[in-house]
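ESCALATION

Customer reports they have been waiting on this structure for their group meeting. Please prioritize. Original submission:
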Amino acid sequence: MELSIKKKQRRDKDKTPGSRNKLKEQNETPKGLQILAKHWQTCYKNPNRIFYDLRGILKQDSIWFAAYLKLKSNKGSFTQGPDEDDIDSLTKNRILELREAVLKNKFS
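Update from on-call: job pushed to the front of the queue and completed.
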């Protein structure tokens, strides 16, 4: 009897407004990373596959931020940043400026 009350309390707790949306948002993979994962799987299955016009992927913010976090965590890289896995607004703006420069062929 006591066990069923605890289960009901947990179910009721999960029904609080917004709790389901928050869980969904936390577990949702950004579109750019989903596209990269599919490309990786395709390349793994067919290493000779050639992809053309990857600009669509480069337009996705998520891959640029993921690349920054991966480089930042690499102890051998010269990328400096804050200790926690959080991108401050200044760094975020610089990453987006880099993305725009690459997309406009102005990166050198």
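Sent to customer with the following note: The first helix runs from residue 2 to 14.
Escalation resolved.
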